[in-house]
Amino acid sequence: MDSGGINGNHGSKDTMPSADGMDMNMHHGKEMLMHMTFFWGKNTEVVFSGWPGTSLGMYLLSLIVVFVISVLLEWISTCNLIKPGTPRLAAGLMQTLMHTLRMGLAYLVMLALMSFNGGIFIVAVAGHSVGFLIFGSRMFKPENETPVADLPPMKC
């Protein structure tokens, strides 16, 4: 018995079957595939539709951007910008601004990871590792310094 095309739609090119039997829309005559497992390759979309595209240079740029954001996230989590004696209102507003920035960047990295691209995953973890090594570990701090950050640690 002939099903008559993709998912029984008699040759319709507007839909394609997904793994759960539901139809996924096609975009401009091209299949829109969303990976649900890790994959390797430069042809991916990271956070924004169409970015980084299909060129190797833009993929490498997306890797660098995710790495830098991850390092910056670690810096924000461990920085000490509020000086002692700062008025409570100003200190509270600064903490709130820093927390907002930290959460925004954390969600941005999380969205990049949802591309399920292996390279993006590796550079995100590497960025967090390098950022913690530089800003959070004892490696670059004087031995007698007690680390005090403006923001409390992020909790799972």
From TrEMBL:
Keywords: Copper, Copper transport, Ion transport, Membrane, Transmembrane, Transmembrane helix, Transport. InterPro entries: Cop_transporter. It comes from the Eukaryota. Its main location: membrane. One of its GO terms (cellular component) is plasma membrane. One of its GO terms (molecular function) is copper ion transmembrane transporter activity. The chain crosses the membrane at residues 56-77. Residues 1-20 are annotated as: Disordered. It is found in: Membrane. Pfam families: Ctr (PF04145). It is a multi-pass membrane protein. Belongs to the copper transporter (Ctr) (TC 1.A.56) family. SLC31A subfamily. This is Copper transport protein. The lineage of its organism: Eukaryota, Viridiplantae, Streptophyta, Embryophyta, Tracheophyta.
